[in-house]
């Protein structure tokens, strides 16, 4: 077994770290306070070729894989961005480029991958619905065939990045859930031209005020007769769940990588403060009540990193990785939250001061325990599918 990162991943880590070093905690604090996309970082990542890592070389990308994307997301998060920076590697590099590179038609690849690799075209992903939540099987957004088009009607919620994206990777039902046999049949993944649909008045969206991850807006999306050419189907009609697994597992892995970076960052902020703060004549970090919890978090972060890399490696090898992706997301989210909590505690009352990055990192770390899948569902999946216990839901 070889636990050394491949040279390609080391180069990614070093390249993204150089960008991160120019845009530290203060930069991300400002972006969060102003609720704006980190455009400067996005452009530097694009110009350096760090967005198209998983795009094949013949389409202008780096010809690498999900492992390199995960390393990039982890490095960016750890540089000062925190967990919110995961969206820079989820929305376009993973949801768009990675999906089309593996499942797109040759026409779709030629039309989209070069611009996605360059960061010139952006994408978002839409699956969650108000009445379905985490139960993706029961989504009701309908795509009805009409000649050479599908006509889409429905609603989506918590869709991040719509306001920037040109295309939406949309999960629809072409067979209603009640009629699908087996129940995973009847899903069709469509690529929607957002700009065109907005201009026609068939797609609208509304931002959702939220607690954290303020560098990207999340939205309610309303689809009212959006026409989508059949040529924009990703994968096969009615068989979209095969594509969906290759979206959801990378989503978990990138989210886990961002959480690992966030945990490492929160730990570093806590340790630096614990070394300097000395209200009783010695640094508070000399006290075991402060030091031991931080040491415990350090171990948790390292374990989560190993599972995240393993899950990404399995996906790149076209091997089953569902259990590993779930475990990576579960453990990384918990490590990030524990790191943020101990960072908060180490700062005492100063944690409430917005002069420190504690509040931002604390807010953004918490969401990982709930999205992209709640930890309770992951535990239920492990109990049923890994331990063989009776189904609990």
Brief synopsis:
The chain has 393 residues and is α+β, with helices and mostly antiparallel strands. It has three domains: 7-118, Acyl-CoA dehydrogenase/oxidase, N-terminal domain (Butyryl-Coa Dehydrogenase, subunit A, domain 1); 123-240, Butyryl-CoA Dehydrogenase, subunit A, domain 2 (Beta Barrel), CATH 2.40.110.10; 241-386, Butyryl-CoA Dehydrogenase, subunit A, domain 3, CATH 1.20.140.
Question: Describe it for me?
Answer:
By secondary structure, the chain is an alpha+beta fold. The chain folds into 3 domains: 7-118, Butyryl-Coa Dehydrogenase, subunit A, domain 1, CATH 1.10.540; 123-240, Butyryl-CoA Dehydrogenase, subunit A, domain 2 (Beta Barrel), CATH 2.40.110.10; 241-386, Butyryl-CoA Dehydrogenase, subunit A, domain 3 (Up-down Bundle). Helix content is 51%, strand content 14%. The protein has a 4-stranded mixed sheet with strand order 1-4-5-8. A hairpin with a 2-residue loop joins strand 2 (142-146) and strand 3. The radius of gyration is 21 Å and the shape is globular. The mean pLDDT is 96.
Strand and helix layout:
Blueprint: H1 7-22, H2 25-34, H3 39-47, H4 66-81, H5 86-103, H6 106-117, E1 123-126, E2 142-146, E3 149-160, E4 167-173, E5 187-193, H7 194-200, E6 203-207, E7 218-229, E8 233-234, H8 241-276, H9 288-316, H10 322-347, H11 358-366, H12 375-386
Parallel strand pairs: 1-4
Antiparallel strand pairs: 2-3, 3-7, 4-5, 5-8, 6-7
